[in-house]
Design a protein that fits this description.
Elements: H1 2-19, H2 30-43, E1 49-50, H3 51-58, H4 62-74, E2 78-85, E3 88-95, H5 131-175
Antiparallel strand pairs: 1-3, 2-3
């Protein structure tokens, strides 16, 4: 009887060890996982990521993944949008706070200005009267306008292509 009891306890411990939650390794806390999940969501940008895809990438169970997503949602870091994907309901996780893009200030003249240390709002050297800043702002503005014009042109070309495709399909249907 004692051997059977010891065997049963041993098997029970082995089953518990094997079935232990995949995501909850001894060295990884729930906060570490939450941070890792949020980082991956942020990396996806404005589009976000499907909850089911994220769990597969991190090797999480659906239960643990859902709990982490709800924790991030309660903290105001993500939003969960219910979507139908391949005939199944899931959530798209979208970060509410994305990191700022520093490219907009990388070319600022202040970074390399030799007299920046003397620059004050009401001093003889001032950002309000600086020609370098004025030129840089105008250049950045022109770049942004050029980009907008290019985007509008691309949208018009795509719309024309879609329109032409519809006309060709219509003509083919009429011919047959």
């Amino acid at each position: 009887m004692y051997c059977c009891k010891q065997l049963f306890i041993g098997l029970y411990k082995l089953i518990l060890l094997v079935s232990k939650d995949k995501s909850m390794d001894r060295g990884e806390s729930i906060e570490d996982l939450t941070s890792k999940v949020f980082k991956l969501i942020v990396e996806q940008g404005k589009e976000g990521i499907l909850q089911s895809r994220l769990w597969k990438e991190l090797n999480l169970t659906s239960r643990d993944g859902s709990r982490i997503a709800m924790r991030l949602e309660k903290r105001g870091l993500v939003t969960r949008q219910r979507v139908l994907e391949n005939g199944r309901w899931t959530y798209r996780l979208i970060a509410l706070r994305l990191p700022l893009d520093t490219r907009s200030i990388e070319g600022a003249p202040c970074i390399t200005c030799s007299i920046e240390s003397m620059c004050t709002p009401d001093g003889s050297v001032s950002p309000n009267t600086c020609r370098l800043i004025e030129s840089w702002v105008m250049l950045e503005y022109m770049k942004s306008k050029e980009k907008e014009v290019e985007e509008v042109k691309n949208e018009e070309v795509n719309a024309d292509n879609n329109s032409n495709d519809k006309e060709v399909l219509s003509e083919q249907e009429s011919a047959s």
